[in-house]
Amino acid sequence: MSLRVAADVEVGDLLPELRVSVSRADLVRYAGASGDFNPIHWNERVARAVGLPDVIAHGMFTMAQGARLVADWAGDPAAVVEYGVRFTRPVVVPDDEAGGLIELSGKVSGREDDGTLKVTVTARSRGQAVLGRAIARVRLA
Known about the structure:
Elements: E1 14-22, H1 24-34, H2 44-49, H3 59-74, E2 80-87, E3 100-111, E4 117-125, E5 128-129, E6 131-138
Antiparallel strand pairs: 1-3, 2-6, 3-4, 4-5, 4-6
């Protein structure tokens, strides 16, 4: 993807949607990379014992998908100078062929005095928001 230029971006522009399928194998790989081996992310029995409906994706895995949406749109991961979220609901990942699904969208919601763009990210799974106040600041060329 080519680098996006700030002059070509307007407040209200929509980012291309991103749909991320999540399997149990993805969670095991993420656990290995992150060092987060909490069994709620791979063991259904443990997840249910603590009141969860099933195994859930790591919150930071979910958050990273929002950053991926913005970085892909910007054309350069280094263009994302700030990113923060609130975790509102977990992404449930059943042990079947479908697994879980995270549906992400974004919108340029502002232009800051320092020239950065404010991008609001929406992340949903099973029809419900899984991230809240997901906002990135992006510095484009």
